[in-house]
Amino acid sequence: MTCPCTRLLLAAFLGAAVIASAQRPNTSDPEHISPQDALALAPEWLQHGDPRERAWAAYWIGRDRLEQQIPPLIDALNKYQASPQAGSSDWADDDFAALVMLDSLIQLNADVSPDLALALYPKFRARALLLLARSHGDAREALLGVMDSAKQRMEWLAAADLLARNPPPGFAARLLKNISPIHATIQVLSPLEGVGGGGVAGDCMGPGGGAPGTDWPPVRIYWLWANQAAGSELLVGGENPVYWQTKSSQDYPLAATLMYDCGNPLNAGPADLSRDLIGQLLGQKKDQFALQLNPFLNITWSSPEAYVNEATSFVLKQAEILHSAENGLRARGLLTDDEAASAQPPLNVKVVDLRDADKTQLPELLFADPSIHLIDRQTDAVN
Predict the structure, then answer these.
(1) 20 contact partners, CB below 8 Å, separation of at least 6
(2) How far apart are CA 180 and CA 6, in angstroms?
(3) What is the rounded CA–CA span in Å between residue 129 and residue 149?
(4) How much is the pTM?
(5) For strand 242-249 and strand 233-236, is the pairing parallel, antiparallel, or unpaired?
(6) 1, 171, 179, 370 — which has fewest CB within 10 A?
(7) Which residues are registered as beta bridge partners of 352?
(8) Tens of pLDDT along 255-302?
């Protein structure tokens, strides 16, 4: 015969088990778990769960805008960044969990330290750029690091545009070095001759990673655009603004890839973009900025004197434009005298003789400005 006290203890135990079972969140369908259950479960899964559970916890935090969980999310990312996997070129579940954690921080407009964002940049490039753009701290050193390590032009431009809003010391000098040297070409033609030109291509996609197992939360895909598109948002303005766009997906390999606008790519390299940024710092629109990286002059031969006058005037005008830009940067406190001396782009001048009839030797061009260099004089006469 069972003792009454034993029956009471058994009943209490079974009752507590039923209550605990009723209070334990049902995780069989984690995507549709209630906000109340997510709030109860997210801290535990974020701190003690496996990568898939950490990803679901991060997903709930973003979905339900659990802003009180931003510090634990950042702590989890700091732990990830300190792990050996963070520095690996291979993708594992820990990396995919970090993707979702970063998505939620972006969704919540969280303030992440520039140092952490820069540390995460090599693997999570679009996400790190968005965090740097929103950081409340001084992100300039980190953005310079992005400029130095960017493998795609859109990323370089985004970092440079962000820096141009509050240029750090040395930024203008860096831009001047990027446009160095200036290549001026003078073509000497016989009457009625002409010339043509060409163009460059742009970027489409950055590198990505592998794929996790099944039953993972939705993740976000990011695009960077050189032009505004339907559904895009401005990341940073400027003479060459950068836009970003995102959408939810289950495609983790694609989410680990930074996408670009393949249909309308950025057809400008760092030198051209640096030239536009110099004009922007000087308050000039890129279409009105007189500085050219590859100034070009066709001279129709008439006489030695006319050639010297026209060629000399052209070269001195290019040197004057360049010196005016440098002086403008100095006047705004963006360029020191020492930086100007070390970063000043030389003006390299090439003369190409394309005359097919008059064989008169071209007179030598002489310049007192030490930054002007006559690097070549070619004779490509048409026979």
Answers:
(1) none
(2) 90
(3) 13
(4) 0.82
(5) antiparallel
(6) 1
(7) 187, 378
(8) 888 666 555 566 788 899 999 999 999 999 999 999 999 999 999 999
Instruction: Report residue 368 as tokens.
Output: 């007192």
Say if CB 277 and CB 175 are below 8 A apart: yes
Domain extents for the chain?
A: 32-167, 178-199+269-379
Amino acid at the residue 151? K
Joined together, the tokens standing for residue 206 give 């950055």
Location of structure tokens 């135990």: 13
pLDDT digits (tens, 9 = 90+) for 55-78: 999 999 999 999 999 999 999 999
367 in Cβ contact with 375 (< 8 Å):
no
Cβ atoms within 10 Å of 319's Cβ, excluding its own:
18
Q: H/E element holding 96?
A: helix 93-107
Of all helices (H) and strands (E), which one includes residue 235?
A: strand 233-236
CA dist 155 and 140 (Å) reads: 15
Q: How far apart are CA 227 and CA 264, in angstroms?
A: 8
Asked whether 62 and 108 are in contact (CB, 8 A), the reply is yes
What is d(CA 58, CA 69) in angstroms, rounded to the nearest whole number? 9
Kindly tell me the number of DSSP H helices and DSSP E strands found in the chain.
Answer: 14, 8
The residues facing 378 across adjacent strands are 352
Q: Could you give the angle at the alpha carbon of 371 between the alpha carbons of 370 and 377, nearest 5°?
A: 95
Peptide bond into 114 cis (omega under 30): no
Q: Quote the tokens at residue 181.
A: 């040297």
Answer yes or no: is pLDDT of 16 > 50.
no
